[in-house]
Amino acid sequence: MEGEDILYEVRGKVTIITFNIPQKLNALNGEQYLLLAKLVERADKEEDTILTLIQSSGRFFSAGANFADKSLANTDAADLFSHEYWLNRFVARNTYLTELFHNHRKILAAAVNGPVIGLSASLLALCDLIYVKEEKDFYILTPFANLGLVAEGAASATLFLRLGWSKASEALLLAKPISGKDLNNLGFINKTYDGQFKTTEEFNQAVHDELVNAFENLHFDSIIQNKQLLKSNRDQLITSANSKEVIRGFNKWIEGVPQGRFVQLAQKDIKHKF
Question: Could you list the residue range(s) of the whole structural domain that residue 148 is in?
């Protein structure tokens, strides 16, 4: 899967991880989220890099979890309500993925070419620097309440910290999209490049070049230590949110609530927020 759905490249002092499933709006299934975790961990261990840049292809950064994937439909009915199944497929994976993003030692930046949904939006909120191609085309959506789930990826802490109580409540309680304009005004975005680039590839290259130029004459150990100092202010909140979220989410899966919501969405008995 590596080298196809998610690309990995070391270019000088930068590790680049690219979502490369534009035909599915870069929605990721469980195996792909696990691969993302492994690649972020690998990037953290690269000896000669200072920056990990996550970028995408097509018109969406990531449409979140790929629930059109047939894995749930092909899973034995007994497993769908099994403690062992969801501890492995949900609790362990989400805890691991969130911790790797939160504890990444290098600068963790995102070149965001379009909307970001679900768990991918939660992971974006754990990035240090966020650069957006077009403010008007960008939004984040955390539709957990629409799916019968709860917050994931420590979103219950990061959205509160980065957006404030009111917007975090809209995002999580009402599953309301938060617009690029609001996100920019609230300081979630570091920079937008409105109208400067026709293609995602041009945008990705521009973000890469700007970041390389920004850290070129800096002392790398100071960067890493400053990140540790910044991160220490949120460590307890993120760790607590992650553990609470996965247990509550696990209980939802055991109860069968999301499974029922997915059936209702597929039958169009309820509307998706997307």
Answer: 6-266
